[in-house]
Write a structure and sequence with these properties.
The chain has 13 helices and eleven strands. By secondary structure, it is α+β, with helices and mostly antiparallel strands. The chain has a four-stranded antiparallel beta sheet with strand order 4-5-9-8, with no helix packed on it. Strands 3-6-7 form a three-stranded mixed beta sheet.
Amino acid sequence: MEAATTSAVEGIDVAEPAGETPFSLALSQDQKDIREWVHGFAEGVVRPAAAEWDEREETPWPIIQEASKIGLYGFEALAQFFGDPTGLTLPIVNEELFWGDAGIGMAIMGTSLAVAAIFGQGTGEQVGEWIPRCFGTPDDVKVAAFCASEPNAGSDVSAVRTRAKYDEAKDEFVINGQKAWATNGGIADVHVVIATIDPDLGSRGHAAFVIPRDTPGLEMGTKVKKHGLRASHTADVFLDDVRVPAANVLGGKEKLDERLARVREGKRGNSQAAMQTFEASRPTVGAQAIGIARAAYEYALDYAKEREQFGKKIIENQAIAFALADMKLEIDAARLLVWRASWMGRTGQRFENAEGSMSKLKAGEVAVWATERAIQVLGGNGYTREFPVERFHRDAKIYTIFEGTSEIQRLVISRAISGMQIR
């Protein structure tokens, strides 16, 4: 059974904000073409392979290679998605890809977090040197990893214990510590690692380092056996006296020293290394969750229109019809929040009410809720692995946990709307 496809709401304009790029829900022809292109790949390549790679719990290298060959995986594609002045292309791409399958989608898009860190914080020279290595080539694809979390530092970024000490004689940093929950950790050709330079400064004393896979002392720990996103590799990363040239500090050592000096004097130190990357990625993560929710909704809708009980289609029962109506309502509402935050981030609007956190919170919780409703619509069939909604539900749950739990997002929002230090 093939699920019907739906598109985002289009054709509604809102009042123009200050700035050169007005917010509009009317997609350009280029955006529509990209959406159809990615959807075709998700429908024809990703979805047919989803169950197999979920069961294997292995990185789907052949599919990543196929994405690279058609130009979907690589810096040129990501630059095009990021370069859209409306900010909407990147969430559109992620929604369609994760509609196909979230595990494979994460295997393809997991590299983008490390790339975002390099692109957002690195010098022009670092961008040119390291981003091509994150992707490799269509004949020899590579992946990258962003390593921020630790066994005792997940939501509490300030608790990072991985330490980087500067060896002035060799102009190198020596890094020791353990990273946890790293997407592509250990198998990545490039690792972007968050480490603390000055523990007394908390998260303001952090820096980001680019570390190649073959660096002595960098080792993969145990691969995590996960509830969902099982086609995406997740593992601990150990750093044992890893020596990194000072040139590998994102932004350069001179800027790092200047920033730390300002912080020690009690002045602002600009964005924190980990939080800057997370803030940029939250609406995109929300779009991934929407893709999962939409896949579940569409499958449940088609199923309800075909399944008969007591002599009629089950969608003719008000309880089922209303459940599906609510699913559609919540998914569209979440998409609007994601698109607003994506546009705000791309056009430099200030997140006065934590709009980025709002989008990720709403989308993640809608994904969990909608996939559970889909299982209920399918009944016993929905609880089996013969039908994909069971996988959709497992994949959705992580979106209320990673890149800021739902509780952390509510904390960020409550602080933004109150102006008070809610704890």
